[in-house]
């Protein structure tokens, strides 16, 4: 089924679009949000590519990617929490 | 053939919601609205792909191991992701990141700001 | 630090072992033994952080049925909110009116509060920022993308929808 490959490439393209916010975002939270969504989109793309190529190893990589991305987000969130009350 | 069309419809619906979330992440005016838009990616964007992929693995490929793994990935993302979203939102607010336009109603600032 | 209880260890072990079986998907003897050992060690170390209350809470037909019904209720709310936010995104991203509201919540159980907070965060358009307890009552601070109602109680009715009622039925 060629559609799986097309959608996988589409998800990868969306992840690249999110890279704009990752590079530009004025604050750390913006960058982290963009990084989190890139991670999820890459997971979806890997899942579809695993089905297309019929090799299960990509699914394991997708599981690890999803887990690490979420831990990552939580870590940066806790780090930002320690800041002072600043008014911008 | 009908099954393939159903699978395509599920994956395409997920792709449309992911596209909407990406557009929101790029274009929304302030940080918190961008977070809201990124939630769109992590819920229905993932759910559509997971349902389509699980149908493909169970019915066309005929390998239950792959299908179970796909479903596990979906459950994992759906159940753990709100914790990260909550942590980053609270951290951003306590760090002092405010939207440029004043919010209409802001109880958190009223209760905790000095 | 809370003490490790035996039922908590047993239920955590069952959960870990089921996860192992789902991921490996084979009934080979060596893999089963390795999975049992790893699950036992993980359960011994993690049970006291994981389960504070009754370990076998969901092993009753009424609660399990309510949980399964809640999944469908939640899916309905999820699709409604998703379509709303996607419409805002596609129509130029200027149709937003953000604000943070303080919403009263009437739930007894700690796990129920966490479940409702996560459900609210997972629906697009609302993010739970913090949980506060004042004078014996619980309040959520919720960032809302479109403040349609300035009164706190009515805003809570709109945000929580039918979810609070079903969660109260699960954790009664």
Could you walk me through the main structural features you see in this protein, from its secondary elements to its overall organization?
The complex is a heterotrimer of chains A (88), B (114) and C (172). By secondary structure, chain A is an all-alpha fold. Chain A is 84% helix and 0% strand. Chain A has one domain (2-81). The longest helix of chain A has 26 residues, at 28-53. Chain B has one domain. Chain B has 4 helices and no strands. In chain B, 54% of the residues are buried. Chain C is an alpha+beta fold. Chain C has 2 domains: 6-50, no CATH class; 62-170, Alpha-Beta Plaits (2-Layer Sandwich). Chain C is built from 6 helices and 3 strands. In chain C, α3 packs antiparallel against α6 (163-170) and α4 (110-122) packs antiparallel against α6. Chains in contact: A-B, B-C.
List keywords for this structure.
heterotrimer; B: 114 residues; mainly alpha; 4 helices; elongated; C: 172 residues; alpha+beta; Alpha-Beta Plaits; three-stranded antiparallel beta sheet; 3 strands; 14% strand
Task: Describe how the helices and strands are arranged.
The complex is a heterotrimer of chains A (88), B (114) and C (172).
Chain A: H1 2-24, H2 28-53, H3 57-81
Chain B: H1 2-27, H2 31-61, H3 64-95, H4 107-112
Helix pairs in contact in B: 1-2, 2-3
Chain C: H1 6-24, H2 29-50, H3 61-90, E1 99-105, H4 110-122, E2 126-134, E3 137-144, H5 152-160, H6 163-170
Antiparallel strand pairs in C: 1-3, 2-3
Helix pairs in contact in C: 1-2, 3-6, 4-6
């Amino acid at each position: 089924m060629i559609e799986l490959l097309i959608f996988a490439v589409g998800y990868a393209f969306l992840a690249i679009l999110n890279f704009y916010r990752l590079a530009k975002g004025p604050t750390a939270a913006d960058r982290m949000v963009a990084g989190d969504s890139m991670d999820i989109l890459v997971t979806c793309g890997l899942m579809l590519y695993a089905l297309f190529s019929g090799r299960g190893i990509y699914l394991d990589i997708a599981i690890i990617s999803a887990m690490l991305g979420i831990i990552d987000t939580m870590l940066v969130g806790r780090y930002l929490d320690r800041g002072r009350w600043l008014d911008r | 053939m009908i099954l393939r069309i159903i699978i395509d419809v599920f994956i395409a619906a997920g792709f449309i919601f992911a596209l909407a979330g990406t557009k929101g992440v790029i274009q929304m005016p302030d940080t918190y609205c961008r977070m809201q838009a990124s939630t769109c990616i992590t819920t229905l964007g993932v759910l559509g792909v997971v349902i389509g992929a699980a149908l493909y693995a169970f019915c066309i490929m005929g390998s239950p191991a792959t299908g179970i793994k796909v479903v596990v990935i979906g459950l994992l993302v759906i159940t753990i992701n709100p914790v990260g979203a909550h942590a980053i939102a609270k951290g951003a607010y306590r760090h002092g990141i405010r939207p440029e336009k004043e919010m209409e109603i802001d109880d958190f600032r009223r209760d905790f700001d000095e | 630090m809370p003490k490790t209880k035996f039922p908590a260890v047993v239920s955590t072990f069952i959960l870990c072992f089921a996860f192992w079986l789902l991921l490996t998907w084979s009934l080979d003897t060596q893999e089963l033994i390795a999975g049992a050992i790893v699950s036992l060690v993980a359960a011994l170390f993690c049970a006291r952080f994981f389960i504070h209350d009754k370990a076998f809470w969901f092993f009753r037909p009424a609660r399990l049925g309510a949980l399964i019904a809640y999944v469908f209720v939640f899916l309905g709310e999820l699709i409604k909110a998703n379509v709303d936010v996607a419409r805002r995104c596609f129509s130029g991203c200027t149709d937003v009116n953000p604000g943070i509201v303080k919403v009263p919540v009437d739930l007894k159980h700690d796990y129920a509060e966490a479940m409702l907070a996560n459900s609210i965060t997972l629906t697009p358009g609302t993010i739970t920022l913090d949980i506060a307890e004042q004078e014996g009552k619980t309040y959520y601070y919720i960032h809302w993308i479109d403040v349609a109602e300035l009164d706190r109680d009515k805003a809570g009715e709109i945000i929580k929808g039918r979810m609070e009622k079903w969660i109260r039925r699960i954790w009664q």
